Amino acid sequence: MTLVLIVDFGFASYLLREIGADPSNIGTVFREGLRLKLLLIVPFFLASSLTFWFFNTKLPVLLFVPMLLSALMLSFSEYCIAPLRALGRYDIETGIITVSNLINFGVAASVAWFGGGVVEVAYASLVCRFQYFVAAAITLYRIAPAVAQKISRCTVSKLFQKLFPYGTDGVLSTAWNQLDVVLVGSLFGSASLGIYSAGQKVVQGLYVLAQVIGNVMIPHLARLSSSKSNELGVLAIKTVFGVSVIGFILSAPLYLFPDWLVETLFGSKYGDLNRLMPYFSFVLVLRFISAGSGIVLTAVGMQSRRNIYQGLGIVLFSALAMLAGMFDLGLVGIIGSYAAALIFMAISFQRALSPYLKLKSNSVNGI
Predict the structure, then answer these.
(1) How far is CA 109 from the centre of its chain?
(2) How many domains does the chain have?
(3) Which end of the chain is more exposed for a tag (fewer CB within 10 A), N or C?
């Protein structure tokens, strides 16, 4: 449910970076963010209601309500999980998520097995999402009791200004994952859309690893940046290089074994995807290269700069995709447009980061 972005608003990235930079400040960061998150529930419900009544979602109210509340519960659960990532408690995070997902699957499957319909399954899932939230909140409190302490309150406007870059990043990331699909469908029709979407699903599935690496590295880099440590430059370079290498490794099967990969994952009906897989492998490499620099930009407090280049990249991709449609360049033209935008972003990220890394690297060498 895309509307949940309203209440998500980049809080997970915000907590990851700010708590990572100064773990002793976890109480203030968590409570201030929670205050704004609770306020955002109002526009979330308002936008959801307007969408339901005026855009004909074709969902009955009895199904729409539990789906809406489940998305909200999941958002608040992730809010409680993010500080555990920032503190490096990945073992606890993994345990909570795994057990909660197993409970959700087991309960939903049981309800369906004993004759429950879609609505009953939706409400069962809502109960499980609430259980996930309670488990995450209680665990966080036990690990970091400071999250429940009273703090001095800053104004809502200041909170919004702090979080705006992270919220914008969430919107831009969603745009990157959906805009190309919309353009392909409108420019080349449903048949091409099916082929293209299948290729992008492979790319997005593998790209999840870059996001996992970001969850691990952002707190470490943020802590070094906050303390002005001489080790920052070295770790930042290792992060950018390491993420890029992983991208090359993961893209290799797409380039070397496209026929086998398409047949295994999608079947013979997607034979036209075979010739496109090498292009998608190039896109995957570029996404990992830009992700490495993007991780460092976020960690050192340059999220706004990252957002600017992401926004410009989206504009560039849209313009090039329209030209690809005008000159009937097909899916190769769309993928090429996507790759060009990623190249622009990767270069822009590196340029924004290079003076900072150069300064830090010089300090490492005693210059």
Answers:
(1) 28
(2) 2
(3) C
